[in-house]
Amino acid sequence: MTSELPTLEKTWQGTAVSSGVAHAVVHVLKDDFDEPDAEPITADQVDSELARWRAALDVTHTEIEALQRAVGEEQGSAEADIFETHLLILDDSSIRKHVEKTVREKLICVDWVYYRLMCKHMDALRGLADSYLRERFLDIKDITQRVMRHLRGELLNHPMFDDPVIIVARDLTPSDTVQLDRSKVLGFAIETGSVNSHAAIIARSLGLPAVVRLHGICEELHSGDPVLLDGDDGMLILNPCAATLTKLRSREEEAEEREDALQETRHEPAVTCDGCAVEVCANAEFIEEMTAIRDSGAEQVGLFRTEFLHMENPDGSEDWLAESYTRAVRAMAPGQVIFRTLDIGGDKVDPQMPFEPEPNPFLGWRGIRISLSRQDLFKRQLRALLRASAHGPLGIMFPMVSGVKEVRLAKTILQECAAELTDEGYAIAEEIEVGAMIEVPSAALSADLIASEVDFLSLGTNDLIQYTLAVDRLNERVADLYQPTHPAVLRLIRMTVEAGRKAGIRVCICGEMAADIELTPLLIGMGLSELSVASGQVARVKHAVRKLHAGDCESVVQATLHLDCPLEILEHSRVLSLQRYPELFE
Ligand code: PEP
Ligand code: MG
Fold this sequence. Notes:
The structure is a single chain. This protein has 586 residues and is α/β, with parallel strands linked by helices. The protein is built from 23 helices and 17 strands. Helix content is 49%, strand content 14%. Strands 9, 10, 11, 12, 13, 14, 15, 16 and 17 form a nine-stranded mixed β-sheet that branches. The protein is globular, with a radius of gyration of 26 Å. The structure holds phosphoenolpyruvate (PEP) and magnesium ion (MG). Residues 303, 305, 343, 439, 460-463, 510-511 line the site of phosphoenolpyruvate.
């Protein structure tokens, strides 16, 4: 008789960033830089193994030459020369000989041999004081990463699943998320990350549970392991036993009952007890979300992040884009969809763009900066948006604006596109609202100047907080310093609201702060009357608004004006929220 050892539960505690529970097997997403397994091969396989590797080197070579050409055309030959070093490393004959010899002698797969050799080179350079040599470390890393990706085959970058899975990853970039077969993904368990990383934002948008900061899971979990992901308590449980599953199921049932009750009023307007109307809109990343958004109780899309559509098809033609935007517009009509023009950069790196790794990507080539310098891309997008405007209400807003000049330039290009399209015989809407995101402190400080150029302002507090407090929104080490209720952040929000009021234009908030029901009193008290949140949060935020009295909210703001401690300010808002809608905290 054989007796199987019982599988033991193992629990990781992380940070919950998107609620809900999922029970499924995991799919561990390999980082391009994860060490491959040292698979043994037979002597017969050596030639095909080496041929596979040479093919990966060739594709990488072509890829780098293409990058070099694109950068050369755009930024000049000095910048393009950087890629010469990449090509030298790639073609280095001593590396090639060493790999071939080792594979033949040791009969180990080429992935491992090449990876180990390149790591050895990197280790030698890593600690050097000379900054030139340290830079070469990055070059080798970049090359290795590209070759490894091609060795693994592009397919692994676009995983398709037969059955539902929970994605386990060290870090999930927006471009990873775009490539996943989302119809089969039940949740995200991430080693790093933070509540404001785009993986977390997307999970909330898609209504999937997500937990970040689950240290060590990529090492210990293997694709196919059964887990339970608890996005409410921030836990991941490997091999959950029957008792654990039953306990969680009954908790889920209670939560579902509460949620059903909340959803009953989702289509009713959000008006405070004393008659202040608050528009609660939805944020969107994917066209497929539109049905869920219509059903969520939101009548408008306050922020459509267009970079995800772009990353799905970076070479998509103007026609394809116009068609995609039109689908979104038609799905929401008569409600308006506000499209944000491309906000590539920061963590939303488009793998196909000729990006040289930047030392401070969040302070670098990002958002409107890219659009204004890559006018071919910008115009394609603007023309597609203008064409979609013929099919329903649409607004356009510009991200990462740091001053009024960028807004004027972007508007001029928009007008040029509109004139071209009219000449070409396309129908475009007569009225298209144009707005600017206020997410850089300089934009908030000059919101009055920007307000005179636009129809609306939209506060992107995710970035506004990181830039104001100099706290990387993705860096878990400084996550405690990321404080939405820091007086400096609140002052910038108040300045923006005031600038909008004086100019007679609306001011919306579309950062994650808008969905935090502990902060709703503060936001309403500061005069915000448009909140754009993940679709799953719409009913909740509307409910919170209906329970509040705008007068009380203003008193909360007054009481906090002289306070210097972010936690104390938060507490004032929290107390009112707990008094007015305790049911939302159960
Ligand atoms: C923001 O910064 O608040 C915002 C909405 O933009 P994103 O999160 O996409 O940077
Ligand atoms: Mg932003």
